[in-house]
Amino acid sequence: MRYINKTISVLIVFLMILSIIPFASAHAAHIDIVPHEEMEIHAYFTKDSPMANSKCEVYIIEENGNEVLHIEGKTDENGHYKFERAPGITKYKIIVADDVGHKAEDIVDSAASGSGNVWFAKKPFAIFTGIGWILGLSGIILYYLSYRKYKKNKV
């Protein structure tokens, strides 16, 4: 029993150390796209700070795969950018880059996504991925602890 308490204490300390280590993607750039009649782009960094005054380029993706520059501009102070759709065009490539070198790009096909919000579809995936990692690591730890206990009682 004393060994298990010591193991759990070491695991808790290890997890606490891991929680204070900054991740490499702390300043990664992301964009969310809301395809309506007027397309909305939300550009932000990982910690939800906006990519203010960043260069935004919107390309039309033609049927043959060629990319043609449709419009370019800058995001506002909240990291938002809006543009009108080209008539009959549903597929766009959007690139947002700041002056430091952070860059995010995404392709949106508004015909495939309908009129729904593309950006709401990405966040639950990230949440479930994180929960999966936590449950998976917990399962491995519990398996290891029960195996050690089983092996100790068997001998």
Report how far the terminal alpha carbons are from each other. Answer: 16 Å
Largest beta-sheet details: 4 strands, antiparallel
CATH C-level class of the domain at 29-115 is Mainly Beta
Numbering strands along the chain, what is their spatial order in the largest sheet? Answer: 4-3-6-7
Radius of gyration from CA coordinates: 23 Å
CATH fold label of the domain at 29-115:
Immunoglobulin-like
Q: Using DSSP, what is the number of strands?
A: 7
Mean pLDDT: 79
What does this structure look like?
By secondary structure, the chain is α+β, with helices and mostly antiparallel strands. It has a domain at 29-115: SOR catalytic domain (Immunoglobulin-like, Sandwich), CATH 2.60.40. 39% of the residues lie in helices and 31% in strands. The protein has three helices and seven strands. The protein has helices at residues 2-20, 110-113, 118-154; strands at 29-34, 38-45, 55-61, 67-74, 80-84, 91-97, 103-109. It has a four-stranded antiparallel beta sheet. The longest helix is centred in the last third of the chain and has 37 residues, at 118-154.
Structure summarized in a few sentences:
The chain is 39% helix and 31% strand.
